[in-house]
Amino acid sequence: MDDSFALASPSYAAMDRPESIDLSHHLSHLAKSRIASPLKGMYKYFQRPGMLMLAGGLPPPELFPFETISATSLQRNSFKTTQVGFGQWLWNWFAGLAGKTDEWTIRKWEEEKDKIQLSSALQYGAFCFHRCTGDWEKRMTAVLPKNGARALLRTLKSLPRAGTAAGLPALARFIYEFTSHVYRPGTSDFRTVINAGSTDAWGKIVTTLCNPGDGVLAEEWTYPSALATAWPNGIKPVPLPMDGKGMTPEGMDELLANWNPDEHEGMPRPRLLYTIPVCQNPTGATMSLERKKRIYEIAVKYDVIIVEDDPYYFLQTGEYEHDEALRAAARPKVTESDDEFLKSLVPSYLNIDYQGRVVRIDTFSKTICPGSRLGWTTCNPIFAERLERANESSTQSASGFAQALVGKLLAEEWGLTGYLRWLKGIKAQYRDRRNTLVDALLDISHASLDARKTSNGTYEFWTRGSGSLSEKGTMRSEKGAVELRKRRILSFVAPQGGMFVWLRVHFASHPEYNSKPTTDLLGALWEDLAEHNVLVAPGTMFSARTFGPGDAAPGFAQADEHLAVTEDGDGFFRMSFSSATPEQMKEAAKIIGDRVTKFFKD
Amino acid sequence: MDDSFALASPSYAAMDRPESIDLSHHLSHLAKSRIASPLKGMYKYFQRPGMLMLAGGLPPPELFPFETISATSLQRNSFKTTQVGFGQWLWNWFAGLAGKTDEWTIRKWEEEKDKIQLSSALQYGAFCFHRCTGDWEKRMTAVLPKNGARALLRTLKSLPRAGTAAGLPALARFIYEFTSHVYRPGTSDFRTVINAGSTDAWGKIVTTLCNPGDGVLAEEWTYPSALATAWPNGIKPVPLPMDGKGMTPEGMDELLANWNPDEHEGMPRPRLLYTIPVCQNPTGATMSLERKKRIYEIAVKYDVIIVEDDPYYFLQTGEYEHDEALRAAARPKVTESDDEFLKSLVPSYLNIDYQGRVVRIDTFSKTICPGSRLGWTTCNPIFAERLERANESSTQSASGFAQALVGKLLAEEWGLTGYLRWLKGIKAQYRDRRNTLVDALLDISHASLDARKTSNGTYEFWTRGSGSLSEKGTMRSEKGAVELRKRRILSFVAPQGGMFVWLRVHFASHPEYNSKPTTDLLGALWEDLAEHNVLVAPGTMFSARTFGPGDAAPGFAQADEHLAVTEDGDGFFRMSFSSATPEQMKEAAKIIGDRVTKFFKD
């Protein structure tokens, strides 16, 4: 990992950044009553040479059946960064580039103690020590019940310096350096905690910061599993209005300014925001730095903790450009430098955080593989310490197999620059995938619908002039007789990367809009598409407004689900371009154009 | 896995076993309000040929950097089952037996769909379908809030048959067959759920079955991390009395019969028992089948759910025999058959469970490696379904790396008979380790203490006759003048395997017993041992009686810790024989004998 340290920008390292402020009043009752593992207090004796260790309960590594684990891994530059469209998608494979692999082995025992080895990686969680500054130990005494704090401090003081973090040391170091270099957090005392994947991390964060009866601010359309994790703990979502660029600062400010618990069944003003700021799931919206800054200031104003769940950060591929000539012109001619690459990504909330009120969730699911069940949380040291306690009494650390294999690949094979090169290739792959699906959708116009781009970057699909007049005056254009014969049926904002297109269906244009519940129309169209072999995710499933036990499973039949469409009668489908082939996407877009046209025919 | 099926006893398979009874009234509020992942409802379309899948958010396996993962694994017969003491401990290595390894590879893609492959193992949790009978779906409707049940049933009905279980299909099948064959559960509709290790499994079980304010019955000396997991959820331990053979049926019956919430700060009569019945942590006690049966009947009587945490099950090595000739005679001459091996292990609570009120926790931590963070829970289908929901919104399934590597080794390399052979070798290893430590402890007598075995199987250490009279009349023997000059200082019951010896220190024999708090004496002796390079675990840390935030970290200084010794002034040290070398154990025993003698000198 020598190259990593060379990369770390000296200007950032030397920057005078503030320490996090005391935010311990956000800790939940549950978090405060977490107990440090009693065995931890003996660690001071663990390092002592000649110590006869009869205290633990560790099985001997001689009895682990794994002597070595090896992998053949794709080379870091397996995927081109300069590819020209999907025609070139498999180019690397034919050119023998992507097929090139490295082979490496993790042994049970290594001479060098620091090297990743199975004897420790597959043992009970190794402990490692991060740099970490600040007087947060002192602060803990004010936070925890008297005895707990005393015990905690005793434990902490017996450790080399200020805090432990479970996990494989080599991987933990890599993660800390990566976070420092790539996100450049605004506080000096941030910490990184390895976890067993984003969903588990979020479950621990929300129960560490919220009590039953509290609410979580969330984008009005959001990742339902995040809400499902909070719900059983008595923590309900409080939806925030969005536009094509994500949640709006105005919406958040207004909601918090006018919060009255009596209007929310006694729920106090929410202190936690759950947000997916980049290539949002499900809407695909990416928030600008400016908007993030405004939202951060609102969080400061109302003392809100921002949880930034950011799995698609490195899938930010930039604006969609339909015109082939313009698209080619915007495409990089050579692989961008690390600095160029990082500058092309909207800064994380971590970067603008000068108080330590941002909790960032990172995962290897989209950049390495979901099966790693491995990621990390970055936050202030007080929250980090409580999250480590939560890990100790549940998942302990993440799987040693995952930590060893991902750790070896990143920390000992690729290093920071190597991993950044890999991420550039991944980003280019998703750029081509995004382009393919959006291209294919716009080609619907070749069939039976007219497409056009509006000034706010939205693509719209209208019925052809040949159709009869709309039933509803509301849809009439002011421009003239010809346009009057058209109805707007679909629209979407082309996403700046990620995995999803959020297709808006304007049910108000449907002939039966006034005679049928809109959710019935949405359900009927979804089922019609599925029966014609196109499976998309119905938008109802992502609604923070209607979330609850009744909303489980596709659930078009719920009584209150009419809320999962907009006031204007718009419903949504989430379409993924992450795993289908180009041919499948084109075929799906064609079927959608065909079925939607038929569905809206009056 | 062909051999596995051949092994499955036909008599057991054909046995007419009852279905589990309805125990859904045990579900906690939290468990009842868990929500099925909304995406699950679309699964019926997932299997359809030709479906264009744009619904999910899966990264394409082409972008996983791992093309193959290989391992060299020790052969199943690497460890002898017939070894003669620790002198032979490394025999296999010299003979080249243990060094023999198999090599195998998991590829990203395999022709055979059923074979373990990285493209699916490293993807978001594969779903698989177990056999499972019973009308438990119907029962769910009575349990869950109306809408939740409806949604759940809809989901379940869209699946091939009765329930899903997250995890790699090959591993999940192996685990189900292993459970069926090895434990022979008494109910026909038991299910197995893969989890991310025992601690995480227990956390989910206790919050699925207990509400805040509830209590958990636990052995008075127990695994503190289990209590630390329950505690922050407002669930407190209720200690049960033990003797040398584990918790006593009488103690449990008496406690439950006379339960008065007013005497327990309003806590209702506990409905959950957490027990480690085999080679218990920390006491090493192993419960007999007869005692298990009596405890099970008490559980039936008071409607208690038994959670059996059983990590040491395959480390049951049988009674300790000090006499070398007798020990050699008892030792197997050839490797025991699978039936002989399984019959040598005390049956699991699962086996005697005819109502489905046993929840068994299994782990690969002691038999494969702790770093797998992989295990499984066996229980009735209603509990299993709720535990799967808990997994979905947290760890999802266990790490795909761990599932693939352990799954491949067990299901595709070793099979059931191969794994049983491996377990026989592990058991023999722990037998030799146990013998080594107990032998070494008894050799203390060569130094300055006298050892003797009492009729109840306890070994005791007494001061030599040369010491002066005990200060306390209570310790005087009735046998005569010579014995009067002796004081009993240490004692222990030789464990039937596992990892631990529970050393009892009779502080009442200490000259300063009346002038100093007993915990101070315990602390002073522990620190003296540590300063002389022997690290053992102080028994205070395993006390369910004094557990709480104040008890974190070694904690000899807590005001109420005098409770962590018995009424007779006995304190405890837990000594582990799992990972030290024979030389280290002998050296440690020598130091203990030496220091204890000095410590008790008056």
Automatic annotation (TrEMBL), chains A, B:
Is Amino-acid biosynthesis among the key words of this record?
no
Q: Which residues form the Aminotransferase class I/classII large domain?
A: 160-588
Which cofactor does the UniProt annotation name? pyridoxal 5'-phosphate
Gene Ontology process terms (BP): alpha-amino acid metabolic process
What keyword terms does UniProt attach to this protein?
Aminotransferase, Pyridoxal phosphate, Transferase
Sample GO molecular function, one term: pyridoxal phosphate binding
Which InterPro entries does this UniProt record tie to the protein?
A: Aminotransferase_I/II_large, Class-I_PLP-dep_aminotransf, PyrdxlP-dep_Trfase, PyrdxlP-dep_Trfase_major
Signal peptide per UniProt: none
Q: Give the record's family classification.
A: Belongs to the class-I pyridoxal-phosphate-dependent aminotransferase family.
This chain belongs to the protein called Pyridoxal phosphate-dependent transferase
State the organism named in the record: Rhodotorula toruloides
